[in-house]
Amino acid sequence: MAGIGSSNYWEDLRKQARQLENELDLKLVSFSKLCTSYSSSRDGRRGDTSDTTPLLNNSTQDRMFDTMSVEIEQLLAKLTAVNDKMAEYTNTPGTASLNAALMHTLQRHRDILQDYTHEFHKTKGNFLAIREREDLLGSVRKDIETYKSGSGVNNRRTELFLKEHEHLRNSDRLMDDTISIAMATKENMTSQRGLLKSIQSRVNTLANRFPTINNLIQRINLRKRRDSLILGTVIGVCTILLLLYAFH
């Protein structure tokens, strides 16, 4: 009965971990979309001279960013706590016979937690960098408008200043496009990563249930590593021979 209770406790922990991982995956996708749309919306409002609407929209996006950051950090903290409980369970007396399988499962959940943590901090850093750059450019545009309204004369200095501002806008737009492409690529890779992890999880489950399949997978991996070493050796020897031939 104690073994059954322990098994149920482990399965409950795994269920909690999977649920938190799914929630984090959805939150991170939404967080990435928010970061992508932030720069686009700011760029679309640059031609608007009204001060109230941009401030309201920027404030709304900033509040969404802060709220989602807190929610994701809370989910990461909960998933970390569940992983710690799983680690404690692996050290419980009576689980020695299952320790290898338990440690394998625990390591997989730890890797997922590490990936999500890294992705969150990277996306958050990109968002803060975009917001800082947008605030700086907004300050420059405000200074230009103040200068134009104060002077009232389109002299040579003003023309050069406006040309420089136009160059800054073009560079900023190019950077926004690059960041949007990078965000879209990252989102696609995140989706593919989830699919690959699901496939890997199924393969590992089959390997744990059927030792013969596990041995076959190990042999395939061993042969792949051996072929890689042989190929690397051949390429290295050929490279050395080509260098010797070139210098002689």
Automatic annotation (TrEMBL):
It is a single-pass type IV membrane protein. It is found in: Golgi apparatus membrane. Residues 37-60 are annotated as: Disordered. The chain crosses the membrane at residues 229-247. Keywords: ER-Golgi transport, Golgi apparatus, Membrane, Protein transport, Receptor, Transmembrane, Transmembrane helix, Transport. It holds the Pfam family V-SNARE_C. GO terms for cellular component: cis-Golgi network; Golgi medial cisterna; Golgi membrane; SNARE complex. The keyword Manganese does not apply. Its main location: Golgi. GO terms for biological process: endoplasmic reticulum to Golgi vesicle-mediated transport; inter-Golgi cisterna vesicle-mediated transport; protein transport; vesicle fusion. InterPro entries: Golgi_SNAP_su1. It comes from the Eukaryota. GO terms for molecular function: SNAP receptor activity. Component of several multiprotein Golgi SNARE complexes. Involved in transport from the ER to the Golgi apparatus as well as in intra-Golgi transport. It belongs to a super-family of proteins called t-SNAREs or soluble NSF (N-ethylmaleimide-sensitive factor) attachment protein receptor. May play a protective role against hydrogen peroxide induced cytotoxicity under glutathione depleted conditions in neuronal cells by regulating the intracellular ROS levels via inhibition of p38 MAPK (MAPK11, MAPK12, MAPK13 and MAPK14). Participates in docking and fusion stage of ER to cis-Golgi transport. Belongs to the GOSR1 family. PANTHER family: GOLGI SNAP RECEPTOR COMPLEX MEMBER 1, GOS-28 SNARE- RELATED. This is Golgi SNAP receptor complex member 1.
